[in-house]
Design goal:
By secondary structure, the protein is an alpha/beta fold. It folds into two domains: 184 residues, Rossmann fold (3-Layer(aba) Sandwich), CATH 3.40.50; 102 residues, 2-Layer Sandwich (GMP Synthetase, Chain A, domain 3), CATH 3.30.300.10. 41% of the residues lie in helices and 18% in strands. It is built from eleven helices and ten strands. The strands form two sheets. A five-stranded parallel beta sheet has the order 3-2-1-4-5, with helices on both faces. Strands 6, 7, 8, 9 and 10 form a five-stranded mixed beta sheet that branches. α4 packs antiparallel against α5. It is globular, with a radius of gyration of 21 Å. It binds xanthosine-5'-monophosphate (XMP). Xanthosine-5'-monophosphate binds next to α7. The site of xanthosine-5'-monophosphate has 13 residues, from α7.
Length: 326
């Protein structure tokens, strides 16, 4: 059985060969730990839970039950991607719960960031719990804990993440990547055959677009944010910036300004572009985006997204601005 301390002798997993050896070793360990029992996993579609899912599917197949909760605050296409990869390609035992209405109804009129986070985190646990209760005979809970989560003694991530699950679930934990650093998890994910878009996915806050749809979330503004964000990602993919920028997204504040469309006054929200580089997210610098690309993105967003009439660029490094607007 593993402990929570990474031994000095443990080699950093940097190649497919090392990843394959790790995978073989973990498959044996997981099989020994769980036998023929079922294992439950909250699959967000983030790197860590996706890699754990792929590893466990290899180790125990249909004994793994994945639950993907769509809280309605995912980026465009993300839940669909989870279903495509895990249900269609990897033939996983996947329960998909579209809880969009539950989350958005609860968030109605709530503008305080911490309160929004609490509602999203609390409801996530409720939805997951309800699904777990429907299943019988589950003794194990798999988690995508990685080594920095254990090292972060202040528990910042655990507090932040919606994946923080209730302690009274009384299930034994299965945490196959808990001694790995993020870069190693990615190498293992690639060796398991997960698509690059999943393995090299940008960090995405647990409360998702909830921290980027500023103030009280409304469905129309959330929709506009999701569409504008999808355009930004598409254009960054096309021009090669996607591989160079650590994190990039759109935030939409709860304010309108006057514009003009079809010769009429047109009140709309601004879409704010944030594109930063960092190694540890503690500090961040601003990525230069060529003006022709900015013009193209502005043109597309203002023409294609209902409700957005301006595009702004955030040039603030961290500190003093945090990465998210929240
Ligand atoms: P800030 O805004 O504090 O963000 O500069 C630093 C990094 O953390 C990400 N972030 C989160 N990550 N759960 C996460 O896993 C969260 O609740 C959360 N909130 C912020 C943020 O996207 C940035 O990469």
């Amino acid at each position: 059985m593993q402990t929570d301390v990474r031994p000095d002798s443990m080699q950093r997993i940097t190649t497919k060969e090392l990843a394959d050896a790790f995978i073989t070793e973990q498959i044996a360990q997981v099989r020994a730990q769980v036998g023929d029992k079922k294992v439950l996993l909250a699959l967000s579609g983030g790197v860590d839970s996706s890699v754990v899912a792929a590893l466990l599917i290899k180790a125990i197949g249909k004994q793994l039950v994945c639950v993907h909760v769509n809280h309605g605050l995912m980026r465009k296409g993300e839940s669909e991607n989870v279903i495509e990869v895990f249900q269609n390609q990897l033939d996983a035992n996947l329960i998909y719960v579209d809880a969009t209405d539950r989350f958005l109804d609860l968030l109605k009129g709530v503008d305080e960031p911490e309160k929004k986070r609490k509602i999203i985190g609390g409801e996530f646990i409720k939805v997951f719990d309800e699904e777990a209760e429907k299943l019988t005979d589950i003794k194990f809970l798999a988690q995508g804990t990685i080594y920095p989560d254990i090292l972060e003694s202040d528990g910042v991530k655990a507090h932040h993440n919606v994946g923080g699950l209730p302690e009274d679930m009384e299930m034994e934990l299965v945490e196959p990547v808990k001694l790995l650093y993020k870069d190693e998890v990615r190498v293992v994910g690639s060796a398991l055959g997960l698509p690059d878009e999943m393995v090299y996915r940008q960090p995405f806050p647990g409360p998702g677009l909830g921290v980027r749809c500023l103030g009280a979330i409304t469905r129309d503004r959330l929709h506009a944010l999701r569409e504008a964000d999808a355009i930004l990602r598409e254009e960054f993919d096309k021009c090669g910036l996607a591989g160079k920028v650590w994190q990039y997204f759109i935030a939409v504040p709860d304010m309108k300004s006057v514009g003009v469309k079809d010769s009429k006054r047109y009140e709309g929200w601004p879409a704010i572009i944030r594109a930063v580089n960092t190694t540890d997210a503690m500090t961040a610098t601003i990525e230069e985006i060529p003006y022709d690309i900015l013009h193209k993105i502005t043109n597309r967003i203002t023409n294609e997204v209902d409700g957005i009439n301006r595009v702004l660029l955030d040039l603030t490094p961290k500190p003093i601005g945090t990465i998210e607007w929240e």
